Amino acid sequence: MKNLGLNILGIVLLSVGLLAFTKARTGGIQGKVNPAEAAVQVLAVSGKDTLTTMVNGGTFVFSNVKAGTYSVMVKAVVPYKDVTLSNVAVVDSATTDVGVIRLLQ
Q: At 52, which CATH number?
């Protein structure tokens, strides 16, 4: 009986140790804004999670994004209008490129 208890304890400790080193898998979202000066901020929203990044030279990148479906919102500066892309899918270990987002006046 003592050996059984030690075996179970060993399995539990091994499982906890392996889980401690398991990294959450993430992906990313990237894209471009045209014209480059038309926006300064982009948001990615999924459920209660909201990520924010800045537009730099017309390009934006979200890193370490949990897998799921997101709405990507480009916040435009006046006189341009905001744009929202729905159903942007992020999968583990991959970056989703949403391409060029054209902002209109």
A: 2.60.40.10
Tell me the C-alpha distance between 33 and 31, whole Å.
7
Across 6-10, average pLDDT: 54
Nearest partner of 34 among 105, 97, 103, judged by Cα: 103
DSSP assignments along 1-67, one per residue = -HHHHHHHHHHHHHHHHHHHTPPPPEEEEEEEEESGGGEEEEEEEETTEEEEEE-BTTEEEEEEEES
The closest of 72, 63, 66 to 28, measured between CA atoms, is: 63
Mean of pLDDT over the chain: 87
Query: 2 near 71, Cβ under 8 Å?
Result: no
Tally of structural domains, the chain: 1
CB-based contacts of 68, cutoff 8 Å, min separation 6: 46, 47, 89, 90
How confident is residue 94, by pLDDT bands cut at 50, 70 and 90?
A: very high
